[in-house]
Amino acid sequence: MECTFSEFSYGYAAIREAESELARVYRASGAPALPSLVAEEELGWDAKLPFVEYALFLQFKRVHYVSRRHPASQTWPYVDGRHYRFAIDTNGHQHHALLDLEARLLSGAEVGEVYYAAPTFHEDHEFDTYYSNGEVLDRSSLVSPSEFGANTGIHHFVTDEAGTSQVLSSPRPPRRQTTWERLVAETEVRARVAADRRPRARISLGLLEEALMSSAATLGRGFSRALDAPAARRIQRLAALLDCGLVLLVSSENQ
Q1: Which residues of 182-214 are buried (b: 16+ CB within 10 A; e: fewer)?
Q2: Cβ distance 113 to 127 under 8 Å?
Q3: 27 and 82 housed in the same domain
Q4: What domain of life does the native source organism fall in (predicted)?
């Protein structure tokens, strides 16, 4: 049984949530890119969410819901219970394009991640609830293209109602699956590490004093500069005059 909602609707919801979550970590560098069908076949992905120092690429998959009413399903014997599945043709050009993209991202040539994304629900009322609660991606499978390898035919990715996944046709647990919660947490860590590595801008005491004096003049707060006093002390007095706290970490370069 197919989803009662379209892949387009699911993709829109996923993009909306991803933008909202990742915007707390990274600054957006542009609008999401949604290629045409012709371009998608060449690029491999359905959506690119660009941020400063990070990009998320997603290829959306519409799932089939398999229940006891479908015992002849080729995936039923491996799961023996209700589950969701989607298929990947590892011989296809689109999958190869995603593998190439993943390799570039892993090599550091570009910064970001790429995943197949598929819902683990199939009815409109479920979609409505998860969309309203911002849980569409939490209720989705996110799997790296390399999980399926290359040129080995069609593989199915199945997830049962307990959330356990398998890669078929030779059953095995997935090795490159993630969750939306884990993805967001990892991007937050990377963003903090990148911020710590950025060189911090420095300003001389003279320029800082001039800026504070300009602010005091704009606010009509007179200040008489005592040139015989150390620059750091004059700056502290200016900060007090402007009702702001100031802690100076003075290096030998700024003296």
Answers
A1: ebeeebeeebeeeeeeeeeeeeebeebbeebbe
A2: no
A3: yes
A4: Bacteria
Do 125 and 223 belong to one domain? no
Tally the domains of the chain: 2
Burial class (CB in 10 A: 0-12, 13-18, 19+), 163: exposed
Instruction: Say if residues 49 and 22 touch (Cβ distance below 8 Å).
Output: yes
pTM of the model: 0.71
Helices first, then strands: H and E counts in the chain: 8, 9
166-200: pLDDT as tens digits: 998 666 778 888 899 989 999 988 888 877 777 66
Residue 1, domain member (yes or no): no
Instruction: State whether 19 and 108 are in the same domain.
Output: yes
CA-CA-CA-CA torsion sign (104, 106, 108, 114): positive
Q: Which residue range(s) make up the domain with 58?
A: 7-197
CA distance 180 to 142: 7
Do 177 and 236 sit in the same domain of this protein? no
- Which amino acid belongs to residue 196? D
d(CA 172, CA 194): 36
Nearest-10 crossing angle of helices 205-218, 231-241: 30
